[in-house]
Amino acid sequence: MDNLRDPEAVDAVLGSIISRGAEVLGDAIATGLEPQHLPDERDRLIYRAMIALVTAGKSIDLVTVRRQLKEAGGIDTVGDAYLAELGAGIPVDIDVTPHAQELVRLAERRALLTSAHNLQEAAKAGNGDLPAAISDLQQSLTSYNDGGGIAARVKNYLDCIEGVFDISQLYVDLSLQGAAEKAAARQVIWRLKGKRVQPHGNKAGRWRVIADNLEEINFGGVTTEDLPIWLPFDLHDYARIMPGNIIVIAGDPDAGKTTAVLNVIKHNIEKWDVHYFNSEMGAEELLGRLKLFDGFPMGHPHFHAYERSCDFQDVLRTEKYCLNIIDFLEVTEDFWMVGKLISDIHRALGDAVAVICLQKKDLASDLPLGGMRSLEKPRVAIAMKRGVPNTAKILKLKNRKCAHSMLNHCRDYNVVNGSELHCRGKWELRS
Q1: pLDDT tens sequence across 91-119
Q2: Second label for 318, Cα 20 to 30 Å away, from 28, 71, 180, 419?
Q3: Of 346, 277, 330, nearest to 308 (Cα)?
Q4: Residue 94: how many other CB atoms lie within 10 Å
């Protein structure tokens, strides 16, 4: 198998590591290069010594490698002359990655040929070694086809996840052990910066997978008709609601948010398939609440109620004329995440519509939890402020039907019997 050896590539890799240190070793390890990939015992001993130095937090150079070899009992096998000649004539700034990759590939081909030969011999002998030889060949084929190595494993990992991840979690998920493997994984991530990943936030080791897949908008068959939907406070007279839209209702405790959305259900049940996700009430309490309404359609085939408090994007109904009511979106910490939670819902919504209830930021503010971030995806957002009387305020209204902006318009109301919203006057602009 002499044609499956590349002494020049070995020289380039090991010589560059000796001259440039741990960073280059990380590049080599990231390709999946392991000591057993090197056919010459001397090279295997040298490479193991380099890994041992990095694992111990020591620098790599000719002196430290020789010392490590001596301590491990390998210096006589390697020889001072062989060690000293490594990397002679190799450019200082050579990229070791393609050379290391070639060494891994050659090793995999040697292993494949060896496994095939062993299988042939076992088949000829007809003894009990045949199953083991078949398994060995299968493993060699898998390694050869997968490309192996930490770099391949990290890239496959990134193919399987979305959003933000911590490098420490990557170590666990890929079962990376020791300083050398972890350093190699970090090296891969850094090389993929700007291509597959980007740093995320201010925490070291936190990354975001780049989502650069684009789906071109297809205007064929698209209409701009308004969806026939009833909204509280006569908002349907002012806002056009289209497939994929989100409506946010933020409010103080006991300001009537649930009353508002239950009325949305009652008035839209004939034209919409309504899915009500409730995080506060069990069956008994919800039934008692619905009985406050005059003629609430509890047994209607379009009404579906569920207990749910998180991960709504996984259970949304996405077809046109499906109305998802989320009462309410619970957030007890990291309020800045509210915008992301709404964005997750928006991405999963399809042609359906969602109405999301949220607590207000505080009694003095009109904004929902999450502040302005909570208003990025909704097309309509209102605040319900408790008082005497209560006041509804428009925080956002896109695709309006009227000629003038409705931003900061307010309308007073009272909650009657826990089932009705009695409006007082019309919408008017207030400072």
Answers
A1: 878 898 899 988 988 888 888 788 777 77
A2: 419
A3: 277
A4: 17
